[in-house]
């Protein structure tokens, strides 16, 4: 039975060129990997109070977890990519400090754009004014190709995206988190919410196969959290709603199947304090065991600082 309510015809939407679209984030402005000189001296100079003490403890917990072979898994909102942090995170992946990543679907979109054209992050206000926001044809086509690959191979979106970027020899794949995960053979998952992303505005978007692939990623994340709950670490960076909600459900599945040892360390990094990351990442998962941290600050400062500390501390253990 057909719906009583009229739907818009997405096939009639006018598209634009990604290469000609003005983008605010260009790889030439991305962060660079910092050398270790003076890292020990800096961190040892910090006072043993409040967030300075918390940051050092969190870094130490990650270092201990990795020395014991436990995962350090990071979940990220798309803003992390837009402020040029991919090279710093890829360096930690290469060093086997970060063992897996989870993105929302906006993260996948920005990662694809960076990998293929070396830029991302359009002017939303300008595009909304004339109806061109999110209408870059190549972005929709690339996303669709990832979904088709995931459907054909019965993989998750994260794995399919990394294979697609590397298989296509994208010009800027060295800046791609998902390409790095594929090359290093570490898990990468992507978690969607239909209607929240620009690809949903285009005719190439197939909701069913996209959701199925993302659900496979949910099951991959749930499996990772079984080990993480036994002394590993999970950090949420800049996702205010979607990934904290996904994490809570995936951790519940992990504990349902494993009994739950509840030795997980969690942390939230964001520019302001949000309800869901604080409750669903920091507090509830560690209420009966483990440790949760909440760090407030700009990603483009806090994440390089975290990376600098991690490379220093892991070398000492």
- What is the third-level CATH name, the topology? Deoxyhypusine Synthase
CATH superfamily: Deoxyhypusine synthase
CATH architecture: 3-Layer(aba) Sandwich
Radius of gyration: 20 Å
Give a quick account of the main beta sheet: strands, pairing sense, barrel closure.
Answer: 6 strands, parallel
Q: Could you tell me the mean pLDDT?
A: 94
Poorly predicted sequence stretches spanning 5 or more consecutive residues = none
| Lateral strand order in the biggest sheet | 5-3-2-6-7-8
CATH class: Alpha Beta
Helix content: 40-55%
Q: How many independent structural domains?
A: 1
How large is the share of residues in beta strands?
5-15%
How many helical stretches?
Answer: 13
Structure classification: alpha/beta
What is the approximate shape?
A: globular
What quaternary form is this?
single chain
Q: Summarize the helix and strand pattern as letters.
A: EHHEHHEHEHHHHEHEHEHEH
Written overview of the protein:
By secondary structure, this protein is an alpha/beta fold. It has a single domain (10-17, 50-316), classed as 3-Layer(aba) Sandwich (Deoxyhypusine Synthase). It contains 13 helices and 8 strands. The strands form 2 sheets. It has a 6-stranded parallel beta sheet, with helices on both faces. Strands 1-4 form a two-stranded antiparallel sheet. The mean pLDDT is 94.
Question: Brief overview, please?
Answer:
The chain is built from 13 helices and 8 strands. It has 317 residues and is of the alpha/beta class.
């Amino acid at each position: 039975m057909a719906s009583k309510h009229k739907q818009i015809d997405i096939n009639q939407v006018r598209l634009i060129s990604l290469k000609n679209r003005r983008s605010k984030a260009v790889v030439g402005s991305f962060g660079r990997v910092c050398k270790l000189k003076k890292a020990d001296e800096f961190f040892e100079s910090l006072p043993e109070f409040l967030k300075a003490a918390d940051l050092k403890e969190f870094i130490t917990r990650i270092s201990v977890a990795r020395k014991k072979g436990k995962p350090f898994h990071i979940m990220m909102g798309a803003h992390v990519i837009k402020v040029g942090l991919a090279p710093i995170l890829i360096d930690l992946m290469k060093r086997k400090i970060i063992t897996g990543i989870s993105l929302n679907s906006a993260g996948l979109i920005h990662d694809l754009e960076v990998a293929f054209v070396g830029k991302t992050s359009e002017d939303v206000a300008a595009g909304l004014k004339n109806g061109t926001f999110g209408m870059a044809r190549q972005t929709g086509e690339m996303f669709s190709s990832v979904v088709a690959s995931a459907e054909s191979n019965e993989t998750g979106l994260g794995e399919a995206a990394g294979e697609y970027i590397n298989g296509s020899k994208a010009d800027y794949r060295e800046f791609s988190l998902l390409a790095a995960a594929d090359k290093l053979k570490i898990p990468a998952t992507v978690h969607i919410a239909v209607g929240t992303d620009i690809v949903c505005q285009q005719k190439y978007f197939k909701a069913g196969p996209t959701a199925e692939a993302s659900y496979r990623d949910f099951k991959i994340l749930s499996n990772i959290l079984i080990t993480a709950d036994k002394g590993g670490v999970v950090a949420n960076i800049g996702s205010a709603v979607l990934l904290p909600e996904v994490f809570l459900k995936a951790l519940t599945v992990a504990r349902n199947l494993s009994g739950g040892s509840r030795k997980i360390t969690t942390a939230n990094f964001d520019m302001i304090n949000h309800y869901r990351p604080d409750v669903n990442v920091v507090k509830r998962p560690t209420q009966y065991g483990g440790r949760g941290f909440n760090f407030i600050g700009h990603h483009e400062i806090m994440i390089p600082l975290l990376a600098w500390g991690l490379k220093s501390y892991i070398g000492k253990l």
